[in-house]
Amino acid sequence: MAIDKNIELNRLQTEIEEYIGLGKNSLVYNYEDLGSRTTLHLITINPRHNQSFLFHISEGIDKVDATKHMLEYVQNFKDRDGSYTIQWKLDSDNTLHTSYFSAKNIMSALDKLYYDRDPNSITVFSVNLNPIS
């Protein structure tokens, strides 16, 4: 029996959401077809300050494969990546926000903060590597 790709995508996405602990309304699966490869940008939506951030990028031969790679990352990222706290504000607002990112290094954490936005629209006040718990 052939697997319905849409059903498989839904199953994988539901599993990702369960691991991360966010609901469907808090995650955006942004797929990009690059010819022989498909890239998945998993975006989180923070309801507190209504901003989106990059969670991770995975790649595969198609949407299902890229989503499987994302699931593998989600299942293991806490063992491989550091946890960073970034304090920032939008230039159009005076509210100080605190966001948390898993990343290999400070630059990767900042890339996730700045993903898909003008870097000049945000002022970063601090970036801290959180202690290992």
Structure description:
- The structure is a single chain.
- With 133 residues, the protein is an alpha+beta fold.
- It has two domains: 80 residues, Double Stranded RNA Binding Domain (2-Layer Sandwich), CATH 3.30.160; 53 residues, Ubiquitin-like (UB roll) (Roll).
- The protein is built from three helices and six strands.
- The strands form two sheets. The chain has a three-stranded antiparallel sheet.
- Strand 1 and strand 2 form a beta hairpin.
- The chain is globular.
Short recap of the structure:
The chain has 133 residues and is α+β, with helices and mostly antiparallel strands.
CATH fold naming of the largest domain: Double Stranded RNA Binding Domain
- Rounded average pLDDT: 91
- Tell me the number of helical segments per DSSP (H or I, 4 or more residues long): 3
Rounded to an integer in angstroms, the radius of gyration calculated over CA atoms is: 16 Å
The side-by-side strand order for the widest beta sheet comes to 1-2-3
- What structural category characterises the helix and strand content? alpha+beta
Distance N terminus to C terminus?
A: 45 Å
What's the total count of β strands? 6
Basic shape: globular
Q: Give helix and strand order, one letter per element, not per position.
A: HEEEHEEHE
Point out poorly predicted stretches. none
How would a textbook summarize the main sheet?
A: 3 strands, antiparallel
